[in-house]
Each structure stands twice: as C-alpha cells, then as structure tokens.
Amino acid sequence: MNGADSEVGRLATVMLHRPGAELKRLTPRNNDKLLFDAIPWVGRAQEEHDAFAEALRDHGVEVLYLTELLQDTLEYEEAREEIIPAVLSDRQLGDRLARLTRRHLEDLDPEDLAQTLISGLAREELKTGRGLVYDLMDRHDFVVDPLPNLLFTRDSSVWIGDRVAVTSLAMPARARESLLTRLIYTHHPRFAGVEHLYEPWLEHLEGGDVLLMAPGVIAVGTGERTTPAGVERLCRRVFATGLAHTVLAVPIAQQRATMHLDTICTMVDADTVVMYPPVAYSLQAHAVTMSGDELRVADARPFLDAAARAMGVERVKVIDTGLDPVTAEREQWDDGNNTLALAPRVAVAYERNVETNARLEAAGIKVIRIAGSELGSGRGGPRCMSCPISRERLSALP
Ligand SMILES: NC(=O)NCCC[C@H](N)C(=O)O
Questions:
Q1: Of the candidates 105, 124, 144, which is a domain's last residue?
Q2: pTM recorded for the entire structure
C-alpha cells in the first residue's frame, strides 16, 4: 500500500533520482544559483548513488527511479500536453523562442523529452533558431533550465498517510521539479486514484521540512524554504482529511546550513531523533490543533517537549551528533543529521560523519554507511535523496 505514517516504519518502496546529465550543466558561474556548493564529478556521483540504491535493495526496499516513472508518464498524450506549455511559460523566452522550443519538445519521444525536462536545453541544442531573444542569447544559455537538485527527491513530494503532497518549492532553481512529480502522480498508472494533499502553486512547502513524528503527529520546519503560510495550508488539509491531529510548527534559522528541518533533526526510532546539539534543546515549536473550525496555535515551547506531548510518550530521546562544537558543526554541514531510517533503529548515513555514526551505534542504531563525497556537493544526505512511497504503518502495529 502506498503511503507512510512515520519516519521509521519498515521502508518498502522509495523514489530516487539517479543523477545524470543535469549535473554536467553545473559550472563555476552557475553553481550558486543552482544551489550546489561545488562542481561534482558526475561519474563518481553516479557510482555513489548506485551504491546507495544497492544498499536499499539489499535491505528489501523497492527502488523506483524518477526518470523511468517520468518516461512512462510521457507516453500519455495528456501528460505531454500538460507539461510542455508549463515549461514554456518561462517569461525569459518571449513568444518566438517559446514557439520554436515548443516544436522542439513536441518532436521528442518520451525518453528524450524526459531527459530534456530534467537536464535542460541549451540554445545551441535547438535544431534551428531565429529571433531577437535567440540572437541575443549566448549559445550556452538555457532555453529550458536544468534541474540538478532533482537528486533530492525528498523535497518535491512527500507522502502523508495514503495521500501525496506535491510540494511548492521556494527556490527558483527548483520550482519546476514539482511539476514533474505532479505529472507522475497524476498520470502514471502506478499512482492511479491517489489523492493529492498539496499542489505546487500553493504557499511554499518543501518535503525536507516535513517530519512524520508519529501517526497523527507531523513536525514542519519553517525557515528558508517552507513559509508559515505553507504550514498553515498544510495544517488545514491534514486536519480536514483526518491525517493528523497535531502539527508542530518549528521555526528554524533562515540560512543555508539549516535550509530544512531534516538538516538538523531526523528520526531513527519511533521515539528517538538524531539532532544537531546546538539546537537540540533550544529549538521551539508551536503545537497546532483544530478547535471547531479554527486552527488553535499554542504558545512556543521546547520542540522536544511539544513533540513528546503530541506523540503521547514520556520523552523523545536525543542522540546528539558530535563531541565538541567544531566536530558537531562540521558533521551537521556534511549531513550527519540527515539519516534515512529503513526500519526502527536501522538507518542509512554518510560514512564521512565518523563521530555522528559512532554515536548512533553506541545508542544501538544499526548504521548503513554510504559514500557521499560527490553527492554531498549539492548539500543533502540520505534522507534528502529519498522519497518514501511506502512504509509499513506504525499505527497498524499491535
Ligand atoms: N531536504 C534537504 O535538505 N534537501 C537538500 C536540498 C539541497 C539543495 N541543493 C537545495 O538547496 O535545495
């Protein structure tokens, strides 16, 4: 069954994106705008990603690839008719270049169209070109921008219960990603009948900010990416559909190191989180519940207290990630807190976060280590690189 009600129920199916030609578009001139800290070695990034996928399969997880789902989806005429105009609505193109680009895209078979939607299209790759915009562009300029951050499938959709929230990404370099995930969930037969809980044109909300703390309890970070208005919209929708009774709205610092809640906190057991020490005891949360027709927003209290109350446990256990502040800061930056749980007490983590992983193991967590020196140049770890499509429900356990 599709969906999830926790971060730690046994992972059955996950959607990944194997990085490809879109990473080859990164240059020292555009990497900041495209949200990468360095220029990755693409072949090695693919090897690291393949090893990640293999580790998941070795643990019984079905791996779906976004590219393959998109190719299948683009076999359907309605899907093609929906996505091509959406790509051309970019105001940079102007009418004439948009017409040319439309013809180019319409001529592509599903495989090439999927590839172009992901890796973009440079002016020089158009078969023919004319007009003011075309003439004034550099031949390397993009007519369709590449999506190197598609690798981080966590952010462009998130399953809550049996519904999928197709997110609304805040950074212009990522906005188009959720048009692709929406297309897949709308037209791919595997997802027929799945109800959408959120849409890309609503207030900004990114999957990396959404943590399913326990059945009925969702924490949502609000900072650089997810806005308070996005949290409010999600609250209304999860309460209206009975998918949650409490949402914890968690303000996080608006900076790159903490762009999403999952950069500072992830769950490794039903009542245990791995957390960045400087924020573990200072992070605050507002518990949001429904009171009649209105949202009831409680005063801020320590996140861990608010979470324990909502989850109905005595306390949320914390494994912190480093012995000294410098190590903790280095390993937080390198996604040490960004683990992907495959089951309670089993988590995938980047191998380079030596101290954090040692701490996890000392606390009884089985750590599956993966290499990520190249993958990490996009600033995301195992949780960021995975969208759980199906997890064993914790609410179904006796
Ligand atoms: N959930 C996450 O933290 N995802 C990582 C996203 C990294 C990407 N380069 C970004 O800036 O959006």
A1: 144
A2: 0.96
